[in-house]
């Protein structure tokens, strides 16, 4: 093989690798949601990771938290999902139920039906991390988690 052919093949390989790495960067599954305009100020809350950050879902911060309206001016109607939220459980859960089908949730885990009207999804599920902690628990750990609210009185 001549030196020129060898250099051409080497150059083509380097170019291919560069293009593949650029495509991998562009296909980063968290790129869309983490470039949301909200992230300009809210980086301290961390980037959205895991399943909900997939570009295929086409989610933005407002998909769950609502439209910013006059935000950052006070008051605002942005939904906050936490134990100390002033929002009613039904209001919080309805945001989740715009995508998640109650029947499928019930088929996946019976506790979804039992808690649907009394406990916010965010009481057990964490949506911003790479993995939802509740999904990684063993049966024993889930039982221990239930004991946080269901302590047996003797």
Q: Please, could you describe this protein's structure?
A:
This protein has 154 residues and is mainly α. It has a domain at 79-154. 40% of the residues lie in helices and 0% in strands. The protein is built from 7 helices and no strands. The protein has helices at residues 3-26, 31-34, 61-65, 89-97, 102-108, 111-115, 139-146. It is globular, with a radius of gyration of 22 Å. The N and C termini lie far apart (85 Å). Residues 10-29 have low confidence and may be disordered.
Assembly category: single chain
Structural class: mainly alpha
Overall shape: it is globular
Low-confidence stretches: 10-29
How much of the sequence lies in strands comes to under 5%
Mind summarizing the main beta sheet?
A: none
Mean model confidence by pLDDT: 75
User: What share of the residues lie within helices?
Assistant: 40-55%
Distance between the termini: 85 Å
* H/E element sequence: HHHHHHH
The tally of beta strands, per DSSP, is 0
| Tally of separate helices | 7
Radius of gyration: 22 Å
Signal peptide: 1-26
Protein name: Cytochrome c-type protein NrfB-like domain-containing protein
InterPro entries: Cytochrom_c_NrfB-like_dom (IPR053875), Multihaem_cyt_sf (IPR036280), Multiheme_Cytochr_ET (IPR051829)
Keywords: Signal
């Amino acid at each position: 093989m001549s030196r020129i052919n060898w250099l051409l093949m080497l150059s083509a390989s380097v170019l291919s690798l560069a293009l593949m790495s650029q495509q991998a960067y562009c296909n980063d599954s968290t790129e869309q949601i983490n470039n949301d305009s909200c992230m300009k100020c809210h980086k301290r809350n961390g980037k959205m990771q895991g399943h909900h950050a997939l570009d295929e879902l086409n989610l933005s911060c407002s998909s769950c938290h609502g439209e910013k309206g006059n935000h950052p001016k006070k008051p605002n109607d942005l939904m906050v999902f936490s134990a100390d939220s002033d929002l009613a459980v039904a209001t919080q859960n309805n945001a989740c139920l715009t995508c998640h089908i109650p029947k499928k949730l019930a088929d996946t885990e019976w506790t979804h039906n039992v808690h649907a009207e009394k406990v916010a999804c965010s009481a057990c599920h964490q949506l911003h991390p790479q993995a939802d902690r509740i999904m990684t628990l063993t049966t024993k750990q889930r039982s221990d988690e239930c004991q946080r609210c269901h302590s047996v009185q003797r």
